[in-house]
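re the bet — no i am not wrong, look at it urself. input seq straight from the record:
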Amino acid sequence: MKKWLSIGIAILLAVLVYLAPFEGLTEPARRTFAILIIAAVLWISEAIPLYVTSFVIAFLEVVLLKNVLNVSYKVYLYPFFDPIIALFLGGFVLSRALNKYGIDERITRAILLRTGNSPKRILFGMMLVSAFLSMWMSNTATAALMMTIAITIINALPEKDPFKIGLVLGIPFACNIGGMATPIGTPPNAIAISSLASLGISISFIKWMLIALPIVIVILLLTWWLLSSMYKSKVKNITLSMEKLPPMEIKDKWVVAVFIITVILWLTGQIHGIPTGVVALIPPIVLIGGGFIDRDDFRSLGWDILILMGGGLSLGVAMQQSGLAEWMVERLNVGGLASPILLMLIFSSITVVMTTFISNTSTAALVLPIAITIGAAPSALALITAFSASVAMILPISTPPNAIAYGSGLVSVKDMAKTGFVVTFISIFIVTGMSILLTRLLGYL
């Protein structure tokens, strides 16, 4: 019943928007506005699977816009295999291989064995591993892995030790933060890069990291300090007992080699000139072609995320081609109402609020096409919007890592909301301020 009600509301609102006497709204923009409303309602309500909404978007764009815009229908389908989609596909394959062959666990143990036994150091080590793995792997898979290891540590603590809460919260928060650091860390990053590419602004893998990594480090350290201060342990040292892992086999080493080579090629794109999307094809070719990843592994990749991203990119293309994004900016007269810095804070806050309740990919897909057409520093606005979609971590529903942590039964909604609100609120200002500074230093502002 809820599904059909949401679909009915989406269609009704779309019709009302189409028929509304909006001044200056052309026919193509009017139809695109209706498609945007349908997408927004379906994504927010999750009446149908999120990726199916992407198919709805493509279908409606081709059917409703083909006779009013002098543009081939292929324009709306190209985004479903945009170079950014290929980049994420390569990231998914790497992620699956790292998890399948236990490389992620080896990295985790190697770091934890060097952090020492004090609760503060262990929390730092757990958060550092969570953030690092989330740069290259699904933050959901990372959170699941790290929560398993966290249980071992928690079992060594007194029954009502506050540190348990801090440790459980530190993992999802670090996963969310770490995903900002690389273009493949989380879908909003890829949508931001692709959106800017449509304006002729190219951000390479290494330049993204030069901007994002300092922001990640600052927010991660601040979050670690906050958690270690709020949830102090009753013990001075924690004894960790971890079974020794068996030596790496030849296949494990091959996976590590492919990972290292791919990352190096991503980071040195400006030297060799191979696009990051093309480099991302190396993991599927080697790991799938070489039998490291089988058919079942291939089927388990995040295809729904890729299709969801494609739908968001396609919607962005339609909004720009039809003039809807430009019309929205003109109607809002945002540039005349607010200074650029205030405008960026507004977009960051809007993104955080939306991401608190719906998918960060859906939020980015809806907000980014509007943000980049404002006219005031599109690069900074796109980055701020993408980063803000990752720092919203107030509720269990805000991100999958939050949901995994809450599902452990070790933290309450109140604990997560109290700490998550502080981290999120401070992060809005860090993201905005540092994005402006770093994009200016790198010549993007």
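see?? The chain has two domains: 2-81+320-441, 84-299. told u. also The mean pLDDT is 84. so pay up
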